[in-house]
Amino acid sequence: MPRLHARLLGPATLRRPTRRRAARSARAGAAGAVVAGPQDPTTKGDPGPSPDERPLPQPPLVVATADPSLMRMLAFALDQHHLPFVPFTSGSAVLDALLSMPKTGPPAVVLLDVDLPGVDGHAILERLGVERPDSYLLVVLSSHADESTQVRSLLAGALDHLAKPFNVRVLMAKLRRWTAIARRCEAPRC
Fold first, then answer.
1. Domains defined for the chain, CATH in brackets
2. I want to staple 88 with a disulfide (CB 3.0 to 4.6 A). Which of 53, 94, 127, 183 is the partner?
3. Cα–Cα distance between 50 and 25 in angstroms, integer?
4. How far apart are CA 21 and CA 25, in angstroms?
5. Percent of the chain with pLDDT over 90
6. Could you give the CA distance from residue 70 to residue 82 in angstroms, rounded to a whole number?
């Protein structure tokens, strides 16, 4: 049994969304999905863009943490609940990605760890609050459970602040709810 547990939580579970997962999301009616349409009949024999060049659907969920064990655990849990996501391990990378997302359509749900290299989670919250207020459903993950840190996150625009360690079942239940809310919302107003 320990061997199975190690195999399930090994590096193979930490993966970027695949075409199969993207197709499953598109079939499930994921908001913002980009599905390749029929080919132009005038381009006989031209297969169109290769599978690697086709855009993947915009995921309803972004996970940003530099903690590899937390990322593996979240990847496993999200995969079990069929929630597609995009992982980030750098604060500057997730900030650039969030700022480059379209301003229209349903907002992405973002699990944002405070302890990110480059730009920390609180700086990301503050910058998004200025440049893209009410465009994302942001949930802060932090090892700091003190009241002032939680209040800082919530006042900066976070939907919730979860102190580590947190219950994964509770987080998955909340994520299902938040992604359902995101699908019904249109940015910048929910």
1. 55-190 (3.40.50.2300)
2. 94
3. 20
4. 6
5. 50
6. 18
